[in-house]
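Design job #97: recover the sequence.
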């Protein structure tokens, strides 16, 4: 049985780590055994509670991007009512729908099989190492791209546009690239693989700047996190006390998620993903050594 104290602990942990590229699910599976909290991760309420906590994250993201979501909804309305799919907001809305489909389908079809590894901390530790490798590979690719462009500029005329203009904005992505980024969300179904991490990495590969990659990652995550939270909340309907505690804890998770998202967006003005990769690697190795 999941106690209220544990649920609120998981809420703070989930909210603080969900939008960082470090896998909140990996933390929820691995950290409790590392801290010897002593609870049964095979509890039928465990996965539904974790997913309901994500509702707080989804609401935090909607608040953070409320103006943009309103513009997107207006753009989609115009696309349906007037056939205007060329407007920037309508196109972004269609991109988000297209990018959500791959992970949504995989999650629905394989959710029961995937839930079986949520009680395997060593598996989460191993996937954290994979997540670290993905982040480092994305940064290596970005640095190589930056060096190539810097070399080209030094050899060219002095009146070339600044380096930032060589990067894309989210709205400039092609639909095939959007589908690839969306497909990367499938990795988040495995504990230890970060949704924001793999989608930001895919965004960097697609030519986005760090902040733009984070913006697209957060926008893309919102619908699927919201839908999953609503669906899983139905599984807690017969367990009213746990459902009420989880709902209250989701508010805590949302507050932590909002603060962490604002921090990450500011950090990515100048920072990179390397520190998060090293952290995931250290936590993964620690889990493999200490958890049995």
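Job complete. Output follows.
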């Amino acid at each position: 049985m999941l106690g209220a104290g544990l649920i609120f602990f998981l809420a703070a942990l989930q909210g603080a780590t969900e939008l960082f590229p470090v896998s909140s699910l990996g933390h929820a599976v691995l950290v409790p055994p590392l801290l010897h909290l002593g609870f049964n991760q095979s509890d039928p309420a465990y996965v539904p509670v974790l997913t309901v906590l994500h509702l707080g994250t989804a609401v935090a993201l909607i608040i953070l991007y409320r103006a943009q979501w309103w513009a997107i909804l207006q753009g989609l309305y115009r696309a349906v009512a007037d056939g205007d799919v060329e407007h920037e907001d309508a196109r972004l809305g269609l991109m988000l729908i297209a990018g959500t489909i791959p992970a949504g389908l995989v999650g629905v079809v394989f959710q029961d099989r995937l839930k079986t590894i949520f009680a395997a901390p060593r598996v989460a530790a191993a996937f954290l190492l994979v997540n670290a490798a993905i982040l480092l590979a994305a940064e290596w690719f970005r640095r190589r791209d930056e060096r190539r462009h810097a070399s080209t500029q030094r050899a060219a005329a002095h009146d070339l546009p600044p380096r930032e203009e060589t990067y894309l904005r989210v709205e400039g992505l092609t639909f095939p690239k959007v589908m690839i980024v969306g497909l990367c969300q499938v990795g988040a179904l495995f504990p230890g693989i970060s949704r924001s991490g793999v989608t930001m990495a895919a965004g960097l590969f697609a030519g986005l700047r760090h902040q733009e990659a984070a913006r697209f990652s957060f926008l893309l995550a919102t619908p699927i996190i919201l839908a999953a939270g609503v669906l899983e909340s139905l599984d807690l309907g017969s367990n009213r006390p746990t459902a009420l505690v989880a709902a209250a804890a989701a508010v805590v998770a949302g507050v932590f998620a909002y603060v962490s998202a604002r921090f990450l967006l500011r950090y990515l003005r100048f920072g990179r993903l390397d520190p998060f990769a090293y952290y995931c690697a250290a936590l993964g190795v620690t889990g493999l050594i200490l958890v049995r």
